[in-house]
Amino acid sequence: NADCVEVPDLCLPVTAGGLPDLLLWRPAARCAKCVEVKGPRDRLSHQQRFWLAHMADNTMQVGLRRSSGA
């Protein structure tokens, strides 16, 4: 019995891109976390903000990781 994040139909054309870069899965703990990876000067797009907020609103763990650029 897995939980799913429902995707709002009305927003699909706007949010077709922007899904997080990583899905970190811990099967033993039955949990997952979506992570967006950005460079030192990168910013989140509107689509990325939508997905992170939508996933968080639906009790999914989300995160933002900044790379050092090295």
Number of strands: 3
Strand content: 25-35%
Radius of gyration: 13 Å
Strand order of the largest sheet: 1-2-3
Shape: flat
Mean pLDDT: 83
Structural class: alpha+beta
Amino- and carboxy-terminal Cα gap: 42 Å
Low-confidence stretches: none
Please outline the major beta sheet.
3 strands, mixed
Task: Count every helix, treating DSSP H or I runs of 4 or more residues as helices.
Answer: 2
What does this structure look like?
There is one protein chain. The protein has 70 residues and is of the alpha+beta class. The chain has helices at residues 12-15, 46-57; strands at 22-26, 31-38, 61-66. It has a three-stranded mixed β-sheet with strand order 1-2-3, covered by helices on one side. Helix 2 links the parallel strand 2 and strand 3. 7% of the residues are buried. The model has no long low-confidence stretch (mean pLDDT 83).
For this entry, give a set of tags.
three-stranded mixed β-sheet; 70 residues; alpha+beta; 23% helix; flat
SSE order and pairing:
Blueprint lengths: L11 H4 L6 E5 L4 E8 L7 H12 L3 E6 L4
Parallel strand pairs: 2-3
Antiparallel strand pairs: 1-2
